[in-house]
Amino acid sequence: METGPVYQSIQKKLTEALRPVNLEILNESHLHAHHQAMKGVVSSETHFSVSVVSEEFQGKTLMERHRLIYNLLNDELAGGVHALTIKAKAPVEIGTNG
């Protein structure tokens, strides 16, 4: 699967800061290209979904986890990422079955 510079930046920042045991990043931009807000936008990297499982989330509230990710990806959000869907869990929350 080909990934663009925004995808790669998101992957690098989340990997380095959170050392996730599982990280899934989906570029969902193609699902939103027809929306009115996207008229005239030429970037193919505007909407992402991230699922992160990391020990860094242990003891943090959902809001704290989201803030952490938003802070890590501040440049991407300011630079053209229009939407970010987040699933953030600690390993103990996913159990042994994944």
For the sheet with most strands, the description reads:
3 strands, mixed
Structural class: alpha+beta
Query: Would you list the SSEs in sequence order as H and E?
Result: HEEHHEH
Individual helix count: 4
Distance between the termini: 23 Å
What report would you give on this structure?
This protein has a three-stranded mixed beta sheet with strand order 1-2-3. It is built from four helices and three strands, in the order αββααβα. It has 98 residues and is an alpha+beta fold. Helices cover 35% and strands 20% of the residues.
Short summary:
By secondary structure, this protein is an alpha+beta fold. The protein is built from four helices and three strands, in the order H-E-E-H-H-E-H. A three-stranded mixed β-sheet has the order 1-2-3.
